[in-house]
Design a protein that fits this description.
Helix content is 39%, strand content 31%. The chain is built from 4 helices and 10 strands. A hairpin with a 5-residue loop joins strand 4 and strand 5. It is elongated and about 85 Å long.
Length: 197
């Protein structure tokens, strides 16, 4: 056999071996996806989920995927730990957070068109540990913050900490407020502005 034929044979064998490894990789990831689906069906029999493509995180030793609930449209993560074969997911926490965020957004209806995002952790009815508001670019931050405070106050909502975040081309700012700050004027809010970066 001449050198060209030997090289072709070696590359053919090498290509076949690589193809087999790739095929085994995708089959194993599909099996993990099936495990994820079975776990979700067992945990939440009345729900329906879409499991995204399974990925590998070699640093933490896990398989993971993004999952979406068809009924609530809640997106959450699921993972399987290699060492223990334990499957972990945070569907209920994410669903609860999404519900809480939606409730806050409804209470801020007059301001919501000025917001990119709203998040908060509900402690009790009308009480939150933290509410975070991210403002859209070009929105006047102090007047929008004042409107948000008015909306929260009129709906009897308090937060141990209210953080309003906004920025421009060069900087990111935050305004940190506690319940005692809800009556501050726009001018007084200026003293609460923190230049983050």
């Amino acid at each position: 056999m001449n050198l060209k034929k030997q090289t072709k044979v070696i590359f053919s064998i090498l290509g076949g071996v690589i193809a087999v490894f790739i095929l085994m990789y995708y089959i194993s990831l599909n099996l993990i996806s099936v495990e994820f689906k079975q776990h979700l069906i067992k945990q939440y029999p009345n729900e329906s989920f879409r499991v995204g493509f399974v990925k590998i995180d070699p640093i933490y030793g896990t398989y993971f995927a993004e999952v979406t609930s068809v009924s609530s449209e809640t997106t959450f993560g699921i993972r399987k730990i290699w060492k223990t074969n334990e499957i972990q997911e945070n569907y209920l926490q994410r669903k609860s957070a999404a519900k809480s965020n939606s409730e806050i957004e409804k209470e801020l209806e007059g301001v919501s068109n000025s917001l990119i995002g709203v998040s908060g952790n509900k402690v009790a009815e009308g009480q939150y540990g933290l509410i975070s508001l991210d403002l859209k670019d070009g929105v006047e931050p102090l007047s929008t913050t004042r409107k948000a405070l008015n909306a929260l106050k009129s709906n009897n909502i308090t937060a141990e900490m209210l953080i309003v975040r906004y920025g421009d081309a060069k900087h990111v700012y935050e305004i940190h407020l506690t319940p005692g700050d809800y009556s501050l004027t726009e001018d007084e809010l200026k003293s609460k502005v923190i230049n983050i970066k």
